[in-house]
Design goal:
The protein has 177 residues and is of the alpha/beta class. It has 5 helices and 7 strands, in the order αβββααββαββα.
C-alpha cells in the first residue's frame, strides 16, 4: 500500500454502477482467462493481488478457495488477477480451484484504477453481475484486510437476487419475478 488515504484511491477505481473493463490474459495453467467468457453466464468476484509474489495475497486466495463451492452455488465465479513482477513463482498457485489471470505487470490493474500513485498494483475485490455491472469495490487497507470470503459469497448472493433471471433456485423466487 502506498500510504495514501483509502478514500483518495477509491475515487480512481471502478465504482458501483460502472461496467467492468474486459480483459483477456494468460492463465496460470493453460490457455487464457477472459471476462467475456462469463458475460451473461456468471456473476464475478474479481480478486486483484499486489505484485506477485505476495504471501498475504496467496493466503487470501487460499481462504477464498476454501469457500469456492459456496461461492459457485450463487451462480458466480472467482477470477484472480496477478500482476507479475520480476520474481515469478507460480507453483504456489497449484490447487487453486478458480481461474488465475497472469497480468503483464499492472496493465489490468490500471484498467480498473487499482494502481497507486507510485505505480504499484493495489489489492482489491470487484463484485460484478453477469452483465458486468459493478456492485462493490473493496481495496486492501494498509493491514492488507479485504472482504472476508464469506462476505464475497454474500455479495454474490445479493447480486443474484437483484436479477430475476439470475436466481439460483427459481422455486424460491418471489411471485411476479
Amino acid at each position: 500500500m502506498t500510504g495514501e488515504p483509502i478514500e483518495r484511491l477509491r475515487e480512481s477505481a471502478v465504482a458501483r454502477g460502472d461496467r467492468i473493463p474486459d480483459f483477456t490474459a494468460p492463465a496460470a495453467g493453460e490457455g487464457a482467462v477472459s471476462t467475456r467468457r462469463y458475460y451473461l453466464r456468471r456473476n464475478l468476484a474479481l480478486v486483484f493481488t499486489h505484485r506477485w509474489p505476495c504471501a498475504a495475497c496467496l493466503d487470501y486466495l487460499r481462504a477464498i478457495a476454501a469457500r469456492i463451492e459456496a461461492i459457485r452455488a450463487e451462480a458466480a465465479e472467482v477470477v484472480a488477477v496477478l500482476p507479475l513482477g520480476t520474481e515469478v513463482v507460480l507453483g504456489d498457485l497449484a490447487g487453486l480451484p478458480f481461474p488465475v489471470a497472469l497480468a503483464d505487470d499492472v496493465e489490468i490493474h490500471e484498467r480498473y484504477g487499482l494502481v497507486g500513485n507510485d505505480g504499484s498494483p493495489l489489492a482489491g475485490v470487484v463484485i460484478a453481475d453477469r452483465v458486468g455491472t459493478v456492485y462493490e469495490v473493496d481495496l486492501a487497507d494498509p493491514a492488507h484486510r479485504l472482504l472476508e470470503p464469506e462476505e464475497i459469497r454474500s455479495w454474490l448472493e445479493f447480486v443474484s437476487y437483484e436479477c430475476s433471471e439470475c436466481w439460483v433456485d427459481r422455486t424460491q423466487a418471489p411471485h411476479g419475478r
